Amino acid sequence: MKIVKVSGDVTIKRTVDGGTEAQRETVKEIIANVRSNGDDALKAYTEKFDSVMLEALQVEQEEIKEAYQHVDSKLVEIIKEAAANIRSYHEKQLRPSWLTTEENGTILGQKVTPLDSVGVYVPGGTAAYPSSVLMNVIPAKVAGVKRIVMVSPPGEDGSIPAGVLVAADLAGVKEIYKVGGAQAIAALAYGTKTIAPVDKITGPGNIYVALAKREVFGDVDIDMIAGPSEIAVLADDTAKADEVAADLLSQAEHDVRASSVLVTPSMALAEAVQREVEVQCAALPRREIAEQSIRDFGAIYVAANMEEVVETVNQLAPEHLEIMTANGMELLGKIRHAGAIFIGRYSSEPVGDYFAGPNHVLPTNGTARFSSPLSVDDFQKKSSIISYSEQALRDNGSKIAEFARLEGLEAHARAVESRLKKQ
Amino acid sequence: MKIVKVSGDVTIKRTVDGGTEAQRETVKEIIANVRSNGDDALKAYTEKFDSVMLEALQVEQEEIKEAYQHVDSKLVEIIKEAAANIRSYHEKQLRPSWLTTEENGTILGQKVTPLDSVGVYVPGGTAAYPSSVLMNVIPAKVAGVKRIVMVSPPGEDGSIPAGVLVAADLAGVKEIYKVGGAQAIAALAYGTKTIAPVDKITGPGNIYVALAKREVFGDVDIDMIAGPSEIAVLADDTAKADEVAADLLSQAEHDVRASSVLVTPSMALAEAVQREVEVQCAALPRREIAEQSIRDFGAIYVAANMEEVVETVNQLAPEHLEIMTANGMELLGKIRHAGAIFIGRYSSEPVGDYFAGPNHVLPTNGTARFSSPLSVDDFQKKSSIISYSEQALRDNGSKIAEFARLEGLEAHARAVESRLKKQ
Question: What EC number(s) is this enzyme filed under (chains A, B) (predicted)?
Fold first, then answer.
């Protein structure tokens, strides 16, 4: 892992996969086909891409019951506890509708309403993460979304992984379909005979899923399109090198394009972490992925002082930030850009990935400068409320009409005056 | 204006201008040129498109002072009062950061941070609306954004309309540049020598501006891309036909593609409004625009009963909704989808366009199903906070490690265990 002295602006080296022209064409074709041929197209693509001919797309209650037999009951309890923590955290994000009243009869306000329906995409194969089900479904549930649909590509035996089904059931999903890829996104956006359309689609997926989400965006809402995962560790010489290294590697094992960075004022820590990463990496099952990720996207930045460390972190705007310093809390106010902030040596990133409660769907690729973790807000929308009394309009109507005329909009002025001219 | 009996699903007829291939190519070329040639490119495009050679891009303090001489002082006072109302409403949207603590030392929370910098686009010519300046700038200011930049194309005399400059000054903008079109969006997204880049771009614009915003999205954030304006009036036979007609026409005068719709259970009201629209329209300065808009995108929907009226409105998900019924407030709970809801006969839409306080930047094109009015939330972002104590990790660490192993991520498990194995 290379050590770099900070001088001037620093950015995390990142790659964004925008897809090829051919991939974009394929996705457009799939969407058009699903819009024309509905369920038949879904089944044909499932046969083609997932190598299984399905009779029914929807997962039956029986299959969910069965799934519980295939997950260790101790794990079911852990998933339940994680779900409870996630629910409890997201309930704190709920905001009430509000109204204000004035003596002249004016009422202004903001009404908060859940979305009618949401679709959650869950990848198949080794990327079928139960934690991802919890993190996408529970905020929607807490927001009050009535219809939550899950889609996931089936394996060759026509089933969805037991852990995913159990997580979906515990999170409260009542409608699950065995369909993946761009065809699943098309079905969620435009509907088929079996799958009614939804208003918003969330959840991670491969490049075809990402391109399909971009394509349907506008007709329905989508969540962010996530890039490879990132961690920045901000540490001083009170940090333990082995723990810092372990955390960097936990990010690196995700993906060869994941980015793991240490920012520190301490050259001693930098060198110790460099050694530890090498040693620990060699002993990992996913060693090859982690090695390549560390080599291509990892770095240890050594800054002149803590001020420069903080400024570097703000420039990076990392998805995950761990603060391992003598007093982490006192740096919190200085951190402007980070998806999730883990404070102290006992707050290793996996604590947040699975269990603590905050969402693990976080802004990647520097977008923490302007984006937020997935939250209850993403599953609700607001409507403004305006109610003027006769008195309020008599007090302000001529000013409103004058403003409208300044902008050359005479019918606006007359709409107001149509009320004022009457007794 | 045609009268249609509701039967089954109803949708507002809408057009979305996605631009032509040639326009998209032009926009890409302009962006590339601004990225390569910076200020020189901006000045060259301003000469080409706005017919003026500028020496300096930035508006000087002197020009702002001068602008006040060209706006009626009574209007300045009206703009000030509108700004105060807008500020007061948006301050109620502010949300605090929060923390929760548990006895075992766990701290979880959510930190709310303003964006560092925002760019507001203001169209030129007849679409240079002071109200649009207030509605875009004030929420950013209230959110705590430190740097707010405004861009607007100059007229042939090299100036920006006085009303726009006065509104910008009253809203607290300190940095204004004379540049418009796709070149302005490129400058805001990527920066030039004169214009430092921003993190988010908001504000309406023509098709080139809209395409440029789409193009830079991801590198910076953008607000929604607005379609033509829409109003739905929900009225029973207590409503005054002349007032309903005046409100429909105030929307129709905006744009030939604007959409004005009445939904009512009363055929008598429908027919009276139909007549009033014809009479009032004939007397409008922007008659031709309003006429075409009403003809192409207007409709009066007559439903069997109030329940069907409400369901129709929810299907339409209009940008603006006016409720003119015997008791408007009692319908509020049934309205699921609308950008802004105006209740009662004295709440004519222009009340909200200019003055009352809620934002006039609203979701169009049915996106009120999942989108919200522009708000303080759009200029802040959240970071999750996670701090586990040693005790909290000892209580939960093995569960977290087990969950990680369920997902096949061994380094995640080891990161947690690296802390637990020590005394």
Answer: 1.1.1.23
| Binary contact (B368, A381; C-beta < 8 A) | yes
Distance from CA of A288 to the nearest CA of B (A): 13
Residue B268 to residue B416: CA distance in whole angstroms: 72
Residue ranges of B 80-99 with Cβ closer than 8 A to chain A: 81-82, 89, 92-93, 95, 98
Based on the fold, state whether residues B153 and B256 are members of the same structural domain.
no
Residues A234/A236/A239/A244 CA torsion (nearest 10 deg): 30
pLDDT in tens, chain B (423 residues): 999 998 877 766 666 677 888 999 999 999 999 999 999 999 999 999 999 999 999 999 999 999 999 999 999 999 999 999 999 999 999 999 999 999 999 999 999 999 999 999 999 877 778 999 999 999 999 999 999 999 999 999 999 999 999 999 999 999 999 999 999 999 999 999 999 999 999 999 999 999 999 899 888 999 987 788 999 999 999 999 999 999 999 999 988 999 999 999 999 999 999 999 999 999 999 999 999 999 999 999 999 999 999 999 999 999 999 999 999 999 999 999 999 999 999 999 999 999 999 999 999 989 999 999 999 999 999 999 999 999 999 999 999 999 999 888 898 999 999 999 876
| CB A150, CB A86: distance < 8 Å | no
Give the residue ranges of the annotated binding site of A for substrate: 229, 251, 254, 320, 353, 407, 412
Mark whether A62 is an active-site residue.
Answer: no
Domain closes at, from A222, A245, A272: A222
Same domain, B70 and B173: yes
In a domain, B156, yes or no: yes
Task: Provide the domain count of chain B.
Answer: 3
Helix axes A241-252, A267-282, angle to 10 degrees: 50
Which of A251, A416, A422, A423 is the mutation pick for testing B, counting most B CBs within 10 A?
Answer: A416
Q: Looking at B222, B247, B264, which one is the last position of a domain?
A: B222
Torsion angle, CA of B254/B259/B265/B266, rounded to 10 degrees?
A: 50
- State whether residue B353 sits within 8 Å of chain A by CB: yes
CA gap B212, B207 in Å, rounded: 8
B364 within domain boundaries: no
CA distance B69 to B172: 18
Q: Is A232 helix (H, G, I), strand (E, B) or coil?
A: strand
Is B115 within 8 Å of B380 (Cβ atoms)?
yes
- ipTM metric: 0.94
Collapse the DSSP code of A137 into the 3-class scheme (helix H, G, I; strand E, B; otherwise coil) and give the result. helix
**A95 inside domain:** yes
Sorted by sequence, the CB contacts under 8 Å of residue B252 that are 6+ apart come out as: A411, B258, B260, B281, B289, B290, B291, B293, B294, B298
Domain with residue B349: its CATH number is 3.40.50.1980
**What is the distance between the terminal CA atoms of chain B, rounded to a whole angstrom?**
80
Domain that holds residue A262: 3-14+228-356
- A243 tagged catalytic: no
Which residue is listed with tokens 């005399």? Answer: B157
Query: Residue B259, SS3?
Result: strand
Would you tell me how many other CB atoms lie within 10 Å of the CB of residue A9?
8
Q: How far is A379 from chain B (nearest CA, A)?
A: 8
Would residue A133 count as lying in a domain?
Answer: yes
